[in-house]
Structure formats: C-alpha cells, structure tokens
Specification:
Layout: H1 2-18, E1 26-34, E2 41-46, E3 50-53, E4 59-60, H2 63-75, H3 77-81, E5 94-100, E6 103-108, H4 116-132
Antiparallel strand pairs: 1-2, 1-5, 2-3, 3-4, 5-6
Helix pairs in contact: 2-4
C-alpha cells in the first residue's frame, strides 16, 4: 500500500513540475516558403499568445494581437476543415501551409478566390515576423 501511495505521489509530482506542467493549445502553425531569401518561416501561435518564430524562443503577442490570432483561427475553420488548397498563379512569391485543429490549408500570395481570412493570415504572419520576431523581409 505504501509503495502504491509513493508511486502516485511521484507521478503527481512529475506531472505538475518536471514534465512542464500544462501547456496552452496551439491556435495554428504557418509554414511560409517562397522565392526570396527571407521567405522561409515557421510561425507557431498558441491560444495564450505565445509565438515561436523558426523554433526560436517564446515571444508574447499583445492582447489585441492575441484576439486577432484567435479570430483568424476561428475564421480558418471552413477552409481548414475542407483542406482547401489553392494553386499559385505565375509570378507567385510566397506560399503558405497552415495547420490548425480543424485541418490544413495551402495557398500562395496570388492564389485566386482566396477567402478574406487568408489575406488576414498573410498580413498577420508578415507583421508578426517583422515586429515581434524582428526577422528581415
């Protein structure tokens, strides 16, 4: 009986401390690629507004930007759940692959028939990478 209690206590201690505790769920991850040297980017955003750029250190969005990221994630529901994939037209510079809890979406900067949320997402990625991650564009 003592062994079982000790094992439970150890498991509880590991779960709350040593294993990192509770992590916020990811809102979405964006992988951007393209024909320019600065195009390659992986941007991970979680529901608490923590952002990681190219696997770098955690950075924090402002409260308005957290709301904006959550709005984008909600609007991505339909395209992602349908696994929307829009081809690029000639002259495309940037391509995006977005994954969230609902599914995936692929599009390029000049893909025709983009839902408005994809324009919002591309702008969010650009502004976040420049202003928060301080990456060159």
């Amino acid at each position: 009986m003592r062994a079982a209690i000790a094992l439970c206590a150890l498991a509880a201690a590991l779960a709350s401390a040593g294993c990192g505790g509770v992590r916020a769920a990811d809102l979405f991850i964006v992988q951007r690629s393209g024909s320019t040297p600065q195009a390659r980017l992986t941007l991970l955003v979680n529901e608490e507004g923590v952002v990681r750029c190219n696997g770098g250190p955690p950075l924090r969005l402002s409260d308005p930007e957290i709301v904006r990221a959550r709005d984008i994630q909600e609007e991505l529901h339909d395209p992602a759940s349908k696994h929307l994939s829009l081809p690029a037209l000639p002259g495309s510079v940037l391509s995006y692959y977005v994954r969230d809890v609902d599914g995936t979406t692929r599009f390029s900067d000049n893909s025709p028939r983009q839902p408005a949320v994809l324009h919002q997402l591309a702008l969010f990625v650009l502004q976040t990478s420049q202003q928060l991650c301080h990456l060159p564009q």
